[in-house]
Every structure is written in C-alpha cells, then in structure tokens.
Amino acid sequence: MKQDELRRLQKIVEVLRSEKGCPWDREQTHESLKPACIEEAAEVLAGIDILKDTGKAENLKEELGDLLLQVVFHARLAEEAGLFNLDDVAKTVSDKMERRHPHVFAGAAVESVDWEAIKKSEKAGREWEEGYLPGAFSQAEALIAKARERKGLH
What we know:
- By secondary structure, this protein is an all-alpha fold.
- Helix content is 69%, strand content 0%.
- It has eight helices and no strands.
C-alpha cells in the first residue's frame, strides 16, 4: 500500500524539527517563516500563469507543494506549542466548507443560502480580528518587495 504523502510530509517536518534534524528548521518560528509563506504564495500565482500560458503544470505542482510545506510547517510549530495540529487545520477548513455550502451538503436550495450571514455567524465574537488585516496586507507588501529584491526583480 502506498504511504499517504501528506503524512509522509508531516513526518519529514517532524524529523527536520527534531534534535536529529536540521539546525535551520529547528530555529524557525511562525514569525521567521512569514517571508517564505508570502513568497511561496506568489510563486503559486506564477505557476498558475505558466499553466494558463503553456499548458504545463509541473511548476504549479511544485509551487503548490512548497505552499503546502508552509501549512504543514506552521501546523507543526503550533502542535509543538500545544495549540493545534494539521488534522485540526484540515477539520476547521472542512467544517467551514460544509457550513458555507449547505446547498451541497445539507439539502438547502441554493437560492436560500445567505453566504454573508454564514460568514458573519462564523466570526461572531471575533470581529476584532478584522482589525489585523490592514497590517497584514502592509506586511505582505513589504515582504513581496524584499522577495523581489532577493530575486533581482526590482
């Protein structure tokens, strides 16, 4: 039986973070990985453009893998801190997708679905989180500018 590749990636990250692993990987934090996260997301955009223009999917597959590595790595850091793990991340997004698509998963008529109401109920009591978005976008812009410099794309 073929090993589940997502679990294999989780194990690789676990080993990299261990005492037997890589010193660079062991010293990473959520904060230190911000540049890589935003850069990998931008590289996924390039992969999408390559696919659209050439029909070649290899770059997109590779860049999605690099972005997935970011998700797995951040989940590992959170697990080490006792916060949550990758299964919790997957459950959270799966639950959200089912909630946001009652016309698919709960037999509701598509015309009756109020997506804004669903989103609002999901954020009830957490509206304050929206206040972090302007700063996050500013950070992303600065990180993209640094990535451009690093890659010689001024």
